[in-house]
Write a structure and sequence with these properties.
globular; 19 helices; two-stranded antiparallel ribbon; 4 strands; 422 residues
Length: 422
């Protein structure tokens, strides 16, 4: 009962805080951000909507299409209609123009919004809209790159100082395998990684709670914040990666979390993540006085099984998996990359099988394996979305790569000394 009261209270409080942050960002006058928003729009118009940072490498695609839309929404926040403009997330659309030119046309002609994007919170706007008073979009990208770099480097230093070498190697493998260097090149990609790195630093703090009931609240809030700032990119990272780190750092505890405890924690993350959608739609329905569900359900259905380039469900089913797996570095870098990846897998399998140790914790390995498979369940659940947007959804496999390293370490005994506790 105590945990339930705490969780309900946290859900209400965090929802209120998130809405409050968005309202505060919307209070910034348009004229304060006009100059840098126009410069950002011009920059986006000079580039491709889906620009390749590396020619021929699909995993390097930068989603300027989505960034232009979120800037469009940010521009149309209206201090005079504060609550409704934040909830509706309106923007200017013109089917004859691409996404960046719609933004520029709206700015140059002071054109009113004519479409809404109500189903998401668009919480990232609360973080970058204030920056537009001083910075252009390329400068914000650079700021994000520095911030992510510092957080990632700080995390690795923390892990090494704790002699937690296995998860440190696993994080490097995961970040490299999912093209982390492309992440700060798009607003859309950035914020789930910011949330993730902050989470991991918190997990490694000595003050992090040992009680799994309080940890459940941590994951509840993590799911909520992920939903608030993310654009449905690789949201499962904020559940799976911290969970893997906790399982590894506490692998020598006498009382490990039970299957029931881990399921409860995962469920709380899902409640936080899914509950934020329901909160957004519910608040919008009450404040706007309209039934938003037909609009919402239509888009949800499209993300699940909407029409794609394949002509059958099985093709979409297989395509969603194949497209995402092929993005993992270095698979996409030609025949050489494919050979390198196969060689790494064979080497890992060889050492894991031939040099496996007696007394390895098979239950722990099973936990890692289940977590490693969750991203693929996500790809299948959101088949349409994963098929279309594989060039960024593939980064959910960071947790899979980390889990594989932990499985190999558990099998061989590497890094299994009495160290690395949280």
């Amino acid at each position: 009962m105590k945990n339930s009261i705490r969780n309900v209270s946290c859900f209400i409080l965090v929802t209120a805080l998130c809405l409050g942050l968005s309202l505060c960002a919307a209070l910034i006058p348009r004229e304060a951000i006009r100059e840098h928003t126009e410069a950002s729009a011009e920059y986006l118009c000079e580039t491709s909507q889906y620009e390749w940072a590396m020619e021929g490498v699909y995993g390097s695609q930068v989603d300027h299409y989505a960034d232009a839309i979120v800037l469009n929404i940010s521009w149309h926040y209206d201090p005079e209609h504060l609550l409704s403009s934040v909830l509706k997330a309106e923007w200017y659309n013109d089917l004859h123009l691409d996404s960046p030119h719609r933004l520029l046309a709206s700015l140059e002609g002071d054109l009113p919004a004519n479409e809404q994007y109500l189903r998401y919170w668009h919480g990232s706007i609360a973080l970058f809209r204030p920056l537009l008073a001083w910075l252009t979009l390329p400068q914000i990208y650079l700021l994000h790159a520095v911030l992510l770099g510092l957080l990632a480097a700080g995390l690795l230093v923390r892990l090494v100082l704790r002699r937690a070498y296995v998860p440190a190697v696993g994080m490097v493998v995961g970040l490299v395998g999912t093209g982390c260097w492309f992440v700060p090149m798009s607003l859309e990609y950035t914020y789930v990684f910011l949330v993730l790195f902050v989470q991991l630093h918190m997990v490694l703090m000595k003050s992090f709670p040992k009680d799994w009931g309080r940890r459940g609240t941590f994951f509840l809030v993590s799911g909520m914040i992920t939903n608030y700032v993310d654009f449905l990119t690789c949201e499962t990272l904020t559940l799976l990666v911290p969970l893997l780190l906790l399982l590894w750092t506490e692998r020598e505890e006498k009382e490990k979390p039970s299957r029931k405890t881990l399921c409860r924690v995962a469920l709380l993350w899902l409640v936080g993540y899914g509950g934020m959608y329901l909160a957004k739609w519910g608040i919008s329905a009450v404040v706007l006085g309209e039934n938003v569900m037909p609009y919402v359900t239509a888009h949800v259905a499209e993300r699940l099984v909407g029409p794609v380039r394949t002509t059958d469900l099985l093709g979409e089913f297989i395509g969603a998996l194949v497209r995402n797996v092929k993005m993992v570095f270095p698979l996409e870098y030609g025949a050489v990359g494919f050979v390198i990846w196969i060689a790494l897998l064979v080497a890992a399998g060889y050492f894991g099988y031939v040099h496996h140790r007696k007394g390895m914790d098979r239950k722990q390995m099973l936990r890692y394996t289940v977590i490693a498979l969750v991203p693929f369940a996500r790809f299948l659940l959101l088949m349409n979305h994963s098929y279309r947007h594989y060039f960024f959804t593939y980064r959910a496999q960071l947790s899979t790569l980390l889990a594989l390293v932990l499985i190999l370490a558990e099998s061989t005994g590497w890094g299994q000394g009495k160290h690395g506790k949280a």
